Amino acid sequence: MSDEIENTKESPLVESLLPTTNEDEMKNLMQNLDREQAYREHKCWRQYITVLVSIAFCIFQLYATLSGRIPAQIVRASHLAFVQFLAFLLFPAAKSMPKDTLPLYDVVLAFIGAGCWSYYIVNFEQIVRRAGAYTPLDIAVGIVGIIILFESCRRIVGLPIMIIAGSFILYAFIGKYLPGFLNHRGYKLTRVVSHLYYTTEGIMGTPIGACSTFIFLFILFGAFLEKTGIGQFFIDSCNAIAGGASGGPAKVAVLSSALLGTVSGSSVSNTVGSGSFTIPMMKRLGYRGEFAGAVEAAASTGGQLMPPIMGAAAFLMAESVGLPYITVVKAAIIPALLYFAGIFITVHLEAHKLGLKGLPKEDIPRFLPLFLSRGYMILPLAVIIFFLCSGKTATYSALMGIISIIVIAIAVSFVDVAKGNKPRFTLHDLVQVLCAAARGIISVAIACGMAGIIIGVVTLTGLGLKLGAGLVVLAHGKLFITLLLTMISSIILGMGAPTTANYLITSTITAGAIVNCVYGQVSPTPEQLLPAHMFAFYFGIIADVTPPVALAAIAGAAIAKARPMRTAVNATKLAIGAFIVPYMFIYNPAMLMIGANALSILGITVTALLGMFGISVGLEGYAFARTGFLNNFNVSEKVKKSMSALERLCFLAAGLCCIDPHPATDIFGVILLGILIAMQIFRRRKN
C-alpha cells in the first residue's frame, strides 16, 4: 500500500489531496478541483448578509418568472447584479486564501459590480429612448462592468473562457489589421462596449436570458432534491439492484453516477459525492485503484449526458438551436444509453476476468422496503418528465417540480411530527436550499455572461461564419477531417472548464464548422443544427476524463489512492463510447431521433449496443473464455485470460461496423461478431 500511495505523488495537485472518505477531506478535494466549491463560509454578521441577499435573489427570480411583468432586459440585468454582488462576497481572489475572512476590496468590488448593472436598470428607459446615442458615462460604466465580469470569471469559472473572451474583444479592435478571412473593417471602443454591454446581442444575450429563467429554476430544483437526500437514495437503490452481481460495487457506481449526474451537473462533484462510497467498495472487492477511480470518473462525467436534466448546458443548447427542451432530451437518450452501456459492459468483463464476486447479501439493502420507505423522493423528477413530455415549457415543468418537492416535504414533515419525530424538512433547510441555489447559479451566470461577449463579437464582426469556413478549408472540405479537428478543438477548449462554460465555448467556436461543412451556404433548420451542437457538447464534456487535465479522473484517483494519469487513461478507455457515438449521429441523425420512425430507431439502438459490446471486448481483451495459448506459461491469471491481438482487433472491427449507420456495415458487423462470440463460447466449453 505504501508503494501505491507513493506512486500517487506524481502531481503536486494530487499530492496535496491524498484521499480518504473523511467528509472534511472530501470537501477539501472538491474545493481544490472544482472552483465552484471553493467558496467562503461566512460567520457572524457576514453570514446574515449573504443569506439575506441569496434569499432576496431567489424571491426576485421566482417573482419575475411567475409574474412575467418585468421586461426581459431588466430581469437579465438584475440577475447579473445579484450574481456579481454574491460572487465577490462568496469567492476569494485565490482558492488558497482563507475562507473565513472578507477583505474590504472584495466588498468594494461587490458593490461596483452590482452598481454597474443597477445603473442599467435605473436608466433603462433613457437608454432605450436614446436609441444608440450613448453618453461617456454609459461607456465608462460599461467598461467597468466588463472588467468586473472578467475578474469574477477568473475567480470562479477559470482562465480558459476568460482568455478566449479577451481574445475576441481584442479581435474586434485589431481585426482590420489582420490578413485573409480574419479581416474586418474595425470598430471603435464606444461601438464595442455599447454592443457588448447594452444590447441583447452581448452579455445580456441568449445565454443570460436562459440562465435568468429556466436554468435558475432547475438549479433551485436540484438544490431541493439534494436537500431531500435523493443522492443517497439513488446509491442505495442501485446497490439493491446491482450490488450482488459480479463486480457489484462498480456496477453500482455506473448506475448511481448516471442518476446523480442528472441532478448535480458537475463531473467533479459527482465523482467525489458518489465516489467516496463506491470507490472504496470497488477496491475492497478486488478492483485496482486506477480502474476503480476510472469507473467512477467516467460514469460521473457521463451523468451530464443523461436525460432528463443533463445540467444547465442542455437548456442552453435548446435555446441556441431554437428547439423545445424535450426535443434535446429525446435526442440525448440513445447516445447516453450507448455511453453507459460501454462502461457497464467493460466493468462486467473486468469483473469476470478477475473472478470478482458481488457484495454479501447482508450488505445489500432490499429494494422493495427501500422503495416503499423512500420512493416518494423520485416523484418530483417524475413530475418534471411528465410535464416536459406533455409539451409544457421547461420553465413551467421546473416550477411544477419545485412545487411538488415543497408539497412532499411538508407532507413528510407533518407525518414526522405526528409520529413524535423531528421533521425532516424545516425552515432552516429551506434557507439552506435558497442559499445553495443562489450560490450554484453564480458560475453558470458568469459563464453565460462571458459567452455573451464571445457571441457579441461574433455577431458584430461575422467571425462565426469565417471560423467555420476557415476550419472547413483547413480540412479540404472533408467532413471526417472537419469532425476530427472539431473534436480536438472541443477537448482542448473544454479542459478545466465547468460544463456550462464548456458548451458555450465549444458550440460558439466549433459547431459552426460542422454546419458549414455539411450544409455550406444553405441555412440549416434547428433539427439540422442539433447534431453539430451535440457533437461539440459531447467532446467538451469528455475533456473531464481526457489527459492531461482530466479533473474528474484526478478526483477519482485521489479517492482511490491511485496514479492519476493511469486512472485518466483507464477512464478514457471506459468512456470510449463518447469518442465514437458523436461521429455516428453526425453521419446518421436518426440516432438523435431526428426524422426517424420507431422501427429504424430500434434497429439503430440494437446494432449500436452490439457494437459497444464488441468494442468493449476488444479494449478489455476478454469476453467469455481464456485463450488457452498462455496456460503453460508462468503469467498471472488475468494475462492468461487475455485475447490475442488479432482477436481483439477483430472484435473492435466488428463493433465499429455495428455502430456505423449503414445497413451493409451493420450486417457485416453482426455476422463477424456472431462468429467471434461463437468461437469464445466453444472455447469456454472446451476448457
From TrEMBL:
Name by which UniProt lists this protein: TRAP transporter 4TM/12TM fusion protein
InterPro entries: DctM (IPR010656), TRAP_DctM-Dct_fused (IPR011853)
PANTHER family referenced in this protein's UniProt entry, alphabetically: BLL3936 PROTEIN
Domain of life: Bacteria
Keyword annotations: Membrane, Transmembrane, Transmembrane helix
TM region(s), chain numbering: 45-64, 70-91, 103-121, 133-150, 157-174, 203-225, 291-317, 323-347, 367-388, 394-418, 430-455, 467-494, 501-522, 534-560, 567-586, 598-624
Domain TRAP C4-dicarboxylate transport system permease DctM subunit: 145-596
